[in-house]
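Batch manifest, entry 17 of 40.
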Amino acid sequence: MNTKERTIRYIMNTYGRFDLTLVKGEGCLLYDEDEKEYVDFASGIAVNNLGYDNHAVNEAVINQVKKLIHASNYFYTEPQALLAEKLCKNSFADKVFFCNSGAESVEGAIKLARIYAGKFSKRGYNVIAMQNSFHGRTFGALSATGQDKYHKGFEPLLEGFTHVKFNDFGAVEKLIKSEKGNGYCAVIIEPVQGEGGVNIADKEYMKALRDLTAQNDIVLIFDEVQVGLGRTGKLFAYMNYGVEPDIMTLAKPLAGGLPIGAVLAKDKTAKAFEPGNHATTFGGGPLVTAAANAFFDEITKEGFLDEVLNTGEYVKEALNSLKSKFPDLIKDVRSIGLISAIEFYSIKSKDVAVNLISEGFLTTAVQDKILRLTPPLIIKKGDVDLLIESIVKVLNGHYNK
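Output type: structure tokens
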């Protein structure tokens, strides 16, 4: 059996996989079994922000493997402590809890918000979340997710979540100022809804949310699992808005491709956690935090994020030109930093993604008619030009059907 056949035979059928087997990567390129190369505009779903075979991350992993791969969190380890220090000193946060994934970080954030409410704010346990959001697939994170398609078959979900329209401050304000408003302990929001189609929060909306939640001692959670750590051109997405959350979740790119998650919080909120309230066996282990330290050092080097912003503006201009070229096919384009979306009127985004694979480019289809671009943060403008040329070719092919 080849890899595809073995996968189908032995692995549960939970992914709609593309017909492609990847074997290695270098920079922004991935290679299949026949050594055909593909320019990566997916980054393992916004994970490989430094691309592939990054020397700094590789060296950190190799060196740490020789020292200590795992130790219980009953003990102190240097890589974990160093990473926590870097995250806090470069963000709003005072404390960090490490876990293993984005969904786990959201679970931790929800637990922290609820225990804070029980101990300090004396509010209820309900959480306001957004329609079209995505927070993960564990039950708490799934319950916070505002897309019915992910809920189907898993009901009943965790109670206490109310979903309102994204970018609609009035909808949040109405709930908090209602007779049952004291029952809400937290608001959770993605500054950019990645799986929802790269929907970008308005600045005034985020500022209004911050003011309202602060006035009512409601915990404001920013889910930056997909858009934190340089993706928007800022170190953290909240920095685009001039506001700070009480809690922030991180994961995907933090350890350069190894599994890690993090819950960051201000002391006021973090103090609600005490020994025994929350834990994880593998969270923040020495191997993944060593990798994360190397990754963080790379993206915080002078000029790195400036280049991300510069390339991001180039992508935005290219997508706007593409939309002008195909006004009957492209409904909208949205972009911030190096996360972008092309929304089609009627074309299936997965069909476009499949055709782009044939052209040597990897992208992701989100929703039914939205193509998402999340390339490594080291992508070059020349690669962007080549992708746009291939998209033009694919769309011209659609016209000629």
